[in-house]
Amino acid sequence: MIQFRNVQAGYPDKKIFLDLNAAFPDHGAVALMGPSGYGKTTLLRLIAGLLKPAAGEIAGLGNQKISFLFQEDRLLPWLTALKNVEIVSDEKKAKYWLSQMEIEEMEKYPREMSGGMQRRVALARAMAFEGDILLLDEPFKGLDEELRRRIAERIRHRAGLIILSIHDRVEAELMGAEIWNLEEMVQPPRE
């Protein structure tokens, strides 16, 4: 179980968490919701170890492997869709997850794909990495309603814990996620 104990965190020009206490389950899905600036992405970065708390403690991560889908797709422009996913896995898993994300033209480069296609390649890469914890920052942006439903169905049945940052309650429902409203959990952000 991941536990935040009296965590303070933020950036040089802005405090985000002043005294955050939270405990994530070992399995299932948690959807982080709240207005911009309330720390959804910051919370994911803290779990991933990309941001260290200024005070307090984050416990329970141990040796767990973390897959992270960032808000930005972060695809390597000089690699094809297939090669972008293979960098974290092997060809067989890369092809499997690209097909699960409904990417048929795996030899295309990011510049040749729509924004929604690029998002699905990034999702395939996060899934192919096979983390114990899957962190998804706005995973369905650029996807239409029907495609979101199909993709969510394929993601939500993986083992382990999924923590996603979203703006739409429908996306939480598609993932079968428990909703955590950060606006209710944290003090208002300070400038």
Nutshell version of this structure?
With 191 residues, the chain is of the alpha/beta class. Helices cover 32% and strands 25% of the residues.
List the helices and strands and how they pair.
Blueprint lengths: L2 E9 L2 E10 L4 E6 L6 H9 L6 E5 L6 E4 L11 H6 L4 H10 L14 H14 L4 E5 L7 H12 L4 E5 L3 H6 L3 E4 H4 L6
Parallel strand pairs: 3-7, 3-8, 5-6, 6-7
Antiparallel strand pairs: 1-2, 1-4
Helix pairs in contact: 3-4
The biggest beta sheet reads: 5 strands, parallel
Helical residues, percent: 25-40%
Spatial ordering of strands, largest sheet? 5-6-7-3-8
Using only C-alpha atoms, the radius of gyration works out to 17 Å
Oligomer: single chain
Percentage of β-strand residues = 25-35%
DSSP E strands, number:
8
DSSP helix count? 7
Helix/strand/pairing class, anyone?
alpha/beta
String of helices and strands: EEEHEEHHHEHEHEH
Mean pLDDT figure: 93
Shape: globular
Question: Can you describe what's shown?
Answer:
By secondary structure, the protein is an alpha/beta fold. The strands form two sheets. Strands 5-6-7-3-8 form a five-stranded parallel beta sheet, sandwiched between helices. It has a three-stranded antiparallel beta sheet with strand order 2-1-4, with helices on one face. The protein has helices at residues 40-48, 81-86, 91-100, 115-128, 145-156, 169-174, 182-185, and strands spanning 3-11, 14-23, 28-33, 55-59, 66-69, 133-137, 161-165, 178-181. Helix content is 32%, strand content 25%. It has seven helices and eight strands; from the N terminus they run βββαββαααβαβαβα.
